[in-house]
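Q: For a teaching session next week I want to show students how multiple molecules come together into a single three-dimensional assembly. I've collected the sequence lines for a complex. Could you give me the predicted structure tokens for the whole thing so I can convert them for display?
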Amino acid sequence: MSAILEVSGLRKAYAGVHALDGVSFAVEAGSVTGLIGPNGSGKSTAIDCISGFQKLDGGTVALAGHDVTGRPAHLIARAGLMRTFQTVRVYERLSLLDNLAIANQQFDPATWIDEFLRTKRYREAIEASEQRARELVELIGLKRYYEAEAGILSYGQKKLVALASALMPSPKIVVLDEPVAGVNPSRIREIEVALQQLNQAGETFLIVEHNAEFITNLCHHVIVLDQGCKLAEGSAAEIHTDPRVLEAYLGMTPEMAAAEMRGAA
Amino acid sequence: MTITGTYLLQLTLNGITLGLLYALIAVGLSLIFGVMEIINFAHGEFLMLGAFAMAFALPVVGLLYWPALAVSIVAIALFGLVVYELLLSRLKPDEFERSILVTLGLSIIVMHLVQYFFTANPRLVDTQFGFEGVEIGAIRITWTRVIAAAVAAAAFAGLYVVLRHTQFGRAMRAIAQNREAALMIGIRPRTVARNAVVLAAGLCGLAGAAIAPIQLVTPYMGQFLIFKAFALVIIGGLGNIPGAVAAAVGLGLIESWIGGFFTVAWQEAAVFIIMIGVLFVRPDGLFKRGSMRVG
Amino acid sequence: MSRMKLVLALLAALAFAALPLLTSSNYILGVGLSALIFTVAAAALNLIYGFTGLLSFAQLGFWGIGGYASALTVMTFGGNFWWGVVWAALINAVVAIVVGYPTLRTNRHAFVIVTLTFALLVTLIARDWVELTRGPMGIANLPAPSAFGHRFASTGDFYWIAWAFSVVMLAFLYALCSSRIGRTLVAIKQNEPLVRAQGISPMPYKLAAFAISAAITGAAGGVFVFHLGIVDPLILDFYYMQTFLIIVIIGGAGSFWGVVVSGVALSALPEVLRFSADFRMVIYGVILVLAMFVMPSGVAGWLRERRLTRTREALQ
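A: Of course. Below is the structure for the complete assembly, covering every listed component.
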């Protein structure tokens, strides 16, 4: 298996603070990889830099073998990296259908001339897009809201829409920025299941999250950041017992953490 | 025309006076923007109302300057209070376009009401000082100009003291610099905003009242000035009070010098072109919660 | 467009075309054709402000440049009215791109201020560049347009020119606003970072919207001055900008039909308010302020909210 996303030596500083200080990792194609770390560890900065929303001070980003370092956000998206946002972003005043259609717009072959002349290419593109949209809407269980304005949905439902939008163009990798933050616990399981299904169908995910259970259930591989550096990397189980990770998160030794968990059980 | 030293000096003094008055307007705009993040399109009308207030107050008090000035300032400050309570307080900080349209509407209403009731005829305002002045060597400056400059300077000194050394002033600077933090320590934004508007209105009223005896008073006198004031605020840096003052005095001097030798043509455009240049060079500096520096 | 709406729109267009057959009052025809032209300018403002979310005061500048461009084409450069209107559109498109490119790369706030200043600068130039614009006196005695040997000398004749112009411009704008490009503009207005994350670069869209709205507004100005018979710095009076703004705001920024209906309806307003010019302006100002608090999305927005509430209830 090859790496879909490979970042090396990421460096970013604001006002003297090193948000990222030489972070390197790779995401294997077809995997669900988690990116975790305590607050201030640089996770969000890493995502923003990788997806082109912030400029890197140093380091490289390669997508499917191609160097995309320094490219603006929209070009990175076109290259096959789709992302969601920590505070959910949808087009509140457009319908679900429109939300998903726009997400696919840049990726279909029809131009505005095609649209104006209503060519066959345009009609086929629209039909293909609509079909994919309906499939995804069915997957996330929001079929009855298809024509409704996205603004009337709940926060968790909007997160699902954002996820579906990111998947519309069948990207090489989907980067999710805290997909279940602020979401109702009942909904979280739904999102987990949806992601598992999508991964089984071949989609690669990089997930930034705080919710430990979510990460453990989903991720094959986990990367831990702390204060701008990569602290540890491995399977979910390995990370759980890694003393450095526990220290960073909880300020505890493995024995203390085990005692904690026994107490909680 | 012989360019004598005295002529230049005269132009310079006029320029400084003009500049200080521009600065009063610009500073008020800057204050309101710093605290509320809105641009008050009706700001020029505050000035115009100050001039009209002076024009009407003077005959009532027998052309005595100081009482009329005081009345004008208070009247416009009160007007600012009313405007705040009725309109501006209902605007939220992130509604930039809406605030522009609301204050634009207010500006239209005020200007045309004044024009409707008082006609567009330019008025000459007379004070107890008439056209008497002081003579420094070969230069003659009317008392009204001298007092205007002095009053403006005094207003700035007072503003500096207020912003630096009073609770009220510190609260304003806090909100302008970091709204969330200021809220967390208990500064009430409504109170600060109201105070800022009243203060800015008072400054404008002062400027208008001081200008009234120097220039002709018309209902549209505020209209053009407001754009120059924007330009000054932006060139000086939003929220940067000394910057706005420096830019204003600079503009006053430039306008006075050029006006003294040439007909007014392209120099009006210059200030706007400079402003656009500044905006392109420092686009993010424009609306970042930044300074409200006083010193 | 749904069949019903298409039929309605066609009927309305025909009804408007019939006006000169129903009355010979130059006054009414003048009001009518002003209504049509102002509606076009308002629809162009709606494109850049209502759809793309950029409050542009530059429209006034484009309107004025368009007026001078068409007048100069005929009076100084020996062309005809039709070319004048074409030049009015083209020149403004170029100016918009030149001014828009650096301005749109800054932020939305700076955009508003720069466009305002632009309008102001155009006013200064119109007043002061006397060699070209003849200064405050303006360029008078603009001749009636002619085509195929027919001179459109009367107000009734000119009305048909204004009508044809409006129909073409509004049809174009409708096609644009209801296309994927229009939808992308709306998306940019609502959530620009999301647009970028979906692979779309907002800049070309904003620039195109700005240039198109400039061209259309300029063409409208170019037509209007021939109705007035003169172009002078008064064409840049802020009154026009206020009128366009009020039409858009009352109709509903972002609603194509809302603005069109509002434009036609509001042009009757000056007639209802047959007071002094000042008082009419006061009413405009009051409307503007009230609308901002009571109906910020205009009539169309208010109707939309009601529909939404019903949908929301139905789905819950």
